[in-house]
């Protein structure tokens, strides 16, 4: 019923001017599953017909008029869109297209997501295995209300939803020979892939996160100005000796959780159609796909998840978070001591929770439930889509060129086993590609094909509900921006021209642009 309704909707849409040449259609909407490293083995796909591909090209073309909303624009996630709520649980509802029979799996997955893990041995054997070193005791501790994390705010606040990722360059990484353009790396020989600032009793935590900010003022057209804060990060009080001299530190806050299953269902060919790594069209934007190694399928795949698109599927993103953030073993990351290195001998010798019927501290069933929950968190409907100021802001968004990276819309694959996510017209405002964001946002840490200045374009849907859901308005990969305008003004590199255009706007235009973003 849902998919039939969308098919009818696509056939009834007015014809829009195509921005892509017909010569690109075979590349954009190829019917077979992509070959080689761009296979999508995690999806059970029903191929598109040629007629469907043509309709999809029309409906996802960039708009040419801004006097009214586009058809179906208010439904950010198509039939999966949930009604907007005015409380902190706006990101916690299941997708509206979910069947009644699936709601139990969603609730069980939610329970796993919220579960507080405890140390081993424990009488609550289904919940033991925490750490010994960890960043949080549950998924929800980082993704509070399924929203985004934040940097610590003052002396009394912990860094529970933020961590420092660690990597050391490695020219001998075997993936260099398997993936073109891959940047080899290994974990720090003592501290592993990320620094954990919590530990079980009897074990020292690895470090204390220290952040210092330096303020600078940016003059804006119209007599306004804005202060930006530049962070400096330090791994203070290292408990196990110094880091490797070549180790880089990348600050990361937990991203919001909505719409992940829909992002996973976007055809890889549609994402790659917008890649332009050599900037062949000369527009200054050169999106690049991150190709990463899949732990589940043991093959290269298109990266979609994580701040640098370092994971290919929702399942692998979830499994890696269990392992590194909480210290919980699972079928994809099986070591029961989590991120503890061979040099951390006491950590590896500690009691673990993998010696019971589960086999792992989170078994296949538990991982499946958390993955299901993460895939099916609903995207709220847009607000104020027909407001004149919002429409003006949308026009400015497109005129300035923001849509060059924040691509508005896609239609997901038809899926045999996930009809509630399949063949939906969605509006995530991302291209899921890597872009050079300039030295100001650089962390200096490569990840797969991403270099130290590149980040994945984050989806913008739901961004206007951040304060309502998460209780703050901190943005970007490390939460340095305290408002959406600050986030825009941190853009550099490929987005330098767009940033300068926003600086040069008159105040009313800047306000309209921000109001449009807040409506997403």
Can you tell me about this structure?
This protein is α+β, with helices and mostly antiparallel strands. It has 15 helices and 15 strands. The protein has helices at 2-12, 25-28, 50-59, 103-114, 139-142, 260-264, 268-272, 314-326, 345-349, 364-375, 388-400, 466-470, 484-489, 496-504, 507-518, and strands at 45-46, 133-134, 162-169, 185-186, 198-199, 208-220, 224-236, 248-253, 291-294, 299-302, 410-411, 414-415, 425-426, 434-436, 454-456. A 3-stranded antiparallel sheet has the order 4-3-8, with no helix packed on it. A hairpin with a 3-residue loop joins strand 6 (208-220) and strand 7 (224-236). Helix 4 (103-114) packs across helix 10, helix 8 packs across helix 10 and helix 11 (388-400) packs across helix 15. The protein is globular and about 65 Å long. The protein starts with a helix and ends with a helix. Residues 1-37 have low confidence and may be disordered.
Tags for this model:
disordered N terminus, two-stranded antiparallel ribbon
Topology readout:
Layout: H1 2-12, H2 25-28, E1 45-46, H3 50-59, H4 103-114, E2 133-134, H5 139-142, E3 162-169, E4 185-186, E5 198-199, E6 208-220, E7 224-236, E8 248-253, H6 260-264, H7 268-272, E9 291-294, E10 299-302, H8 314-326, H9 345-349, H10 364-375, H11 388-400, E11 410-411, E12 414-415, E13 425-426, E14 434-436, E15 454-456, H12 466-470, H13 484-489, H14 496-504, H15 507-518
Antiparallel strand pairs: 1-12, 2-5, 3-4, 3-8, 6-7, 9-10, 11-13, 14-15
Helix pairs in contact: 4-10, 8-10, 11-15
